[in-house]
Amino acid sequence: MKFVTCPSLGRRALSEFTFGGRVEKETDQEAVSEREWAEYVFYHNGAPKTQQEWWYHRPTGIWFLFQRNTLTDSITQVDFANKGLTNDA
Amino acid sequence: MMRRLSPQPLEWINRSQSVTFVFEGEEIKGFDGDVISSALWAQGHKVLGRSFKYHRRRGLLSFANHDINVMLQTADTPNVRGDVVQPEQGQTYKAVNTFGSLAQDKGALVEWISKFLPVGFYYKAFYSPKFLFPKWERLIREMAGLGTVDTSWGERRQPKRYRHCDVAVIGAGPSGMAAAIAAAKQGVDVCLIDENPYIGGSLDYQYANEEALEVTRDDLKTTIAEMDNIQVITSAFVAGFYGDNWLAVNSQQGLIKLSAQSVVVATGVFEQPAVFRNNDLPGVMNASAAQRLMARYAVAPCKEAVVLTANPEGYRAALDLIKNGVVVKAILDTGCGENSWSVPVKQAGIPVFENAAIIEAKGRKALQGVVYAVNGVQQSLDCDGLLMSVGWAPAGAPLYQAGSKFAYNAILEQLLPQELPQGVFACGRINGVFEIVDQIKDGQQAGMAAALAVQDKSVPDFTDYTATRAHSHSYPIWQHPKGKEFIDFDEDIQIKDLKGAIAQGFDNIELMKRFSTIGMGPSQGKHSNMNGIRLLAKLTGKSIDQTGSTTARPMFHPTEVSHLAGMRFRPERLTPMHAFHQQAKAKFMEAGVWLRPEYYATESSREASIAAEVAAVRNAVGLIDVSTLGKLEVFGRDSAELMDRLYTMRMSNMAVGASRYALMVDDSGVVIDDGVAVRYSDEHFYVTTTTSTSDSAYRMIQKKVIEWGLKVTVLNRTGQIGAMNLAGPNSRQLLSQLTDLDLSNEAFPYLAMRQAKVCGVDATFIRVGFVGELGYEIHVSAQDAEHVWQQIMLLGESFAIKPFGVEAQRQLRLEKGHIIVGQDTDGLTNPFEANMPWAVHFKKTYFLGKPSLVRLKTLQKRILVGFELLSAAADDMPLESNLIIDDGEMVGRVTSIGRSATLQKVIGLAMVELACSQVDSELTIKLSDGRMVSAKVVKTPFYDPQGLLQKPQESALGGAA
C-alpha cells in the first residue's frame, strides 16, 4: 500500500486520494490562438519527470499538491493546494 | 496402494484417515493430506492428463505447479491443478481437454497431422478468407480449450483482506526461514509466506534424508513457531509485487493485500526440464518432483530409474531413490562430475556415466526405456522412471516486478538478481546460494538488513555466498532428427517450433514468445522460459544477457476471477424518504451510489404502474423524491464570478429570488453536468448537479476556486438537504394548504425561487418545469424531509396524489424534450449538438470551455432531434442506442425512447447528422434484430409546445391560491 504524509493529516493511504491532474497554468482565454488552446486542451506531454499534481483527499475534502516523479512514482513533497500552487508547470 | 512407501520422516499425509474420490470413472483411495496427483501416482496411474495441442499422454513433470500436465475439472470447477490441490472426499474429477476419455482420447489424432501444423499455423492458415475465420475459431477453441465453463454456475466471491507488516518474507525454505527469524529478532513484525501447506521448502524434500540437517531444521521451525512477531501464511503465493512493497498474496480464502515496509524475496528456483525426444512421456520427471513425491507423500516415482544430471542435486535424488528401494540403473552425468553426493552413489554400486548425452525416451503409453550416448557411443537401458536434474531458473517474478534486473552468471549458468530496489532483498537459491549452511547465512543477513531498513538504520555490507560451481547445464537441449523434444509442455512447443519462429524473423525474445506462444500457457513459462532463452541465444549467437527475458507481470500465476472480484463493497446511499418508498412498494434502482424508486408497484405490471404515475402528474398531482440531486451552496464575495466562470449561461445578472438552468462543459466543450441555480442573495447561490456527478462536480469546483484564487466558499450539502418535486395541475392548490407563501403567478412566477416555511419547517421552493406541469421543487433539511413528504402525501389524497419514480419522470421529461446529461449526451456532445444554443452566453468574457465552444459552434455536424415512430406494432420498438441508417451509412443513434401514454405515440430523442435533422425528415432505425423501422423528425416539446401547463394562468387553476 502506498502511503503519503500530508500536512495536518499525517500518514494516509494513497487510496484515500483522487488524482486531479497535473498542475497546469490555464491559458488566457482572451489572448489564446486556436492552436494554443487546442494544445492546452488535448496535448499532454507524458515524458517522465517530477511534476506538481492535484490530489484530493476524499474523507476531508481537501485538495493537496504533490511533487511526484512519474517514473519512480515517488512523492517528494506535499502541500495544501491553496498555499502551494505555483502554476509553473 | 502399489507405489506407497513406508512412512517418511517429514511426510504430509495422515495415514489414519483415507480420502476416496473418482478419477475418470475409477475410484481412487488416498490419504488425508494427499494431493490428487500423489493419490493417483500411488495407485499406479501414470497418465494423468493430455497435452493441449497434440493430446499426448502426460504424467508428473515438476509436481510443483510449474506445469499443467495434471489439469482436471469437476462438475462446477474448471482448471483444478492436481499437483497442488487436495481431493475432496467423494468428488468426481475428469482430465480437461480430452475427447472421449483420458485413456482413449480421439484428439490424439491431431498428432498424426502435426507436421502440417507448423508454428504460427493459426495466424497464417485462418487469416483468409476472413469470412471463414469464425468457423475455424470455434473449431480451434473446441480442440484446444482447457476445461469447460458452465455459465450456469453460481456467483462465487472471496473477500479481499488487508494485512500490514514491517518485513514480508516470500518463501519459507531454509533461507526464507532464516531471514524471518533474523528480522524478527530485531523486533519488527514479520510475515512469512509460502505456497505450500507447510514451511520448510527444499530443506524438507531435497534434503529430507540428510541426517546432519535435522537439528538445523528443528531449530528453524521451533524458533518460528515460538516467535510471536512472525506470522506464517501458508498455502498462499505472492502473485504480484506492486509499488511501495504492496504484495498481492493469493491464499485459498481469497486475496490478501499485504503492505510491507521491506521485502525479502526467498522464492528460490524452478527446476527446468531437459529438452530431448519424448521428454514428456509419463515417467520422465524433474528430480525435484520425484523428491517431493517421496518426501511429502511417501510415493515411489518408479521401480527402476535412470537419473540424468548436470549437478550435485541429481546425485542427491539418486540417494533418495536408493533409500526408498527404487533401483537406480544408471546416472547419466552430462558434466557435473565429482561432488559430495557422487561418492556415496558410486559406493552403492550405481553405474555413473560421465560425458553422457540423452538421445530419447522410449515407450508407448509411458516410459519404458532411455536411449543415451556416452562419449558419443549410443546405448540404451530399460526403466520406468527418468529423473532430470539439469538446472534451475530463478523464481524471479517478485523481483522483476519490483524493478530489479537479472544478469547471467556464467559460473553458475544461472540468472542472478542485480541492483535490488530500496527495501527489497533477496537470499537463497534465487541469489545463487546452494549450500544449506550458506543459504541460512544469506537468509540471516537479508532478514537483518530488511529489519534495519525498516528501522532506518544503516545496513552492513553483504557477504557473498554465491556458489562457485555450476548447478545448471548451460544448454540442456538435445535435438533429435525425429523431433518431439518439448520445451513448453503447456503449449506443446518443440525445438522446431522455436527454430521456425526465429527463421521467420521472430528472433527477439518478446516476438518469439508471441509468435510461438512459448510461456503463454497457464504455467507462464515457469518450466519453459529459461530453455527458450537458451535456445534463442544459441541460434542467434547472442549471450543470455543480450537475449534478455520476457517480463512476468502480475498476476504471475493464474488467479481465480472470484479472488480478483472480491466481495462487493459498494456503498448505497438512501434518501430521507426511503422508508416511505419501501412501504409504498417502490421498486428501487441504482442511480450512482443512491437507491431511487424506479416506480411504485401499485398496479398489475411495471408498465401499468408507470402509466398510472404519469397520468397522475398530467391530470392531478405527483410527488417525486429528488434528494439524490447534488446540492452545492456557494457563499462569498466572488460567488457570482465563480458561477459565471463555471456555467455556460450568465449567472451574475440573475435577480435574487430567481432560478436559472445551469449547464456545465469541460475544457473541450463537452457537456458534463446540468442543474438549476438559484440566487439567495448577492453573494449567496445554491445550485444542483445531476445525481451521479455531485461528488466529482464539487471536487472540480473546489479545485477551480483555488486555481482562480476566488474569495468564495463552496459547501456540498447533498446529504444535508432533502428535496422533492411536487408537479401537476393540482400542485398549487395542494401546496397552498401547507405554506403561507403567496403562490400566485404575480408573487411566485415560473422559474422563481422563494424561501418560506412548509409544514412548519424552513424550505426553498423553486418553480420548475422539468416534467412539463405546474411544479414546485421543495428543498428542506434532510431531517425534515420525510415529515414534509408525509404531510404532502396525506393532504394530497384529496387531490388524487401519487408518488412517482424515476421511470415516470423520464417519460414525462421526454414528452417535454428535456435532455438527461449522460443519456442524451455522451462524452463528445457539446451544447449545440444537444440543441441548447440558448444555454451558451458568449458575451461573458470567461467561462470553462468557452474557446472550445466558439470553435465548435462553427463545426457542428450533428444535433439532438425529437422523433416519433411511424409504426405502432409492439415488436417494432427500438431500444436506446439503436442506430439510424441512411443509404447503408450510420447517421445517428437513438438516445431516449418511450411509449408516451399521454400522446399515444412512441416518441424519442436521437442524435443525428444535420442533413437529416429537418422536421418531417424520415429516419430509418435499425432494430437490434436487424429489421428496419421508420420514424420521422418532429418538433420538440412533443407535449404542450407553448409551455402553457407549466405556467398556467390563474383562471385555469380554478381561482386557487
CATH topology assignment of chain A: Folate-binding fold
Q: Quickly name the level 1 CATH class of chain A.
A: Alpha Beta
Shape of chain B: elongated
The interface involving the most residues is between: A-B, 22 and 22 residues
Structural class of the secondary elements of chain B? Answer: alpha+beta
Q: Which segments of chain A are poorly predicted (pLDDT under 50) over 5 or more consecutive residues?
A: none
- Mean of the pLDDT scores of chain A? 87
Q: What is the number of independent domains of chain A? A: 1
- Tell me the CATH superfamily of chain A: Folate-binding superfamily
Order of helices and strands of chain A: EEEHEEEH
Largest sheet of chain B: 7 strands, mixed
Computed structural class of chain A: mainly beta
Protein name (chain A): Sarcosine oxidase subunit delta
InterPro entries (chain A): SoxD (IPR006279), SoxD_sf (IPR038561)
Pfam families (chain A): SoxD
Keywords (chain B): Aminotransferase, Oxidoreductase, Transferase
Question: What does this 3D model show about the protein?
Answer:
- The complex is a heterodimer of chains A (89) and B (961).
- With 89 residues, chain A is mostly beta strands.
- Helix content of chain A is 15%, strand content 42%.
- In chain A, the strands form two sheets. In chain A, strands 3-4-5-6 form a four-stranded antiparallel sheet. Chain A has a two-stranded antiparallel ribbon with strand order 1-2.
- In chain A, strand 4 and strand 5 form a beta hairpin.
- By secondary structure, chain B is α+β, with helices and mostly antiparallel strands.
- Chain B is built from 24 helices and 47 strands.
- In chain B, helix 4 packs parallel to helix 11 and helix 18 packs across helix 23.
- Chain B is elongated, with a radius of gyration of 37 Å.
- The model of chain B has no long low-confidence stretch (mean pLDDT 93).
- Chains A and B meet through helix 1 of A and helix 20 and helix 24 of B.
- Chain B: This is (2Fe-2S)-binding protein.
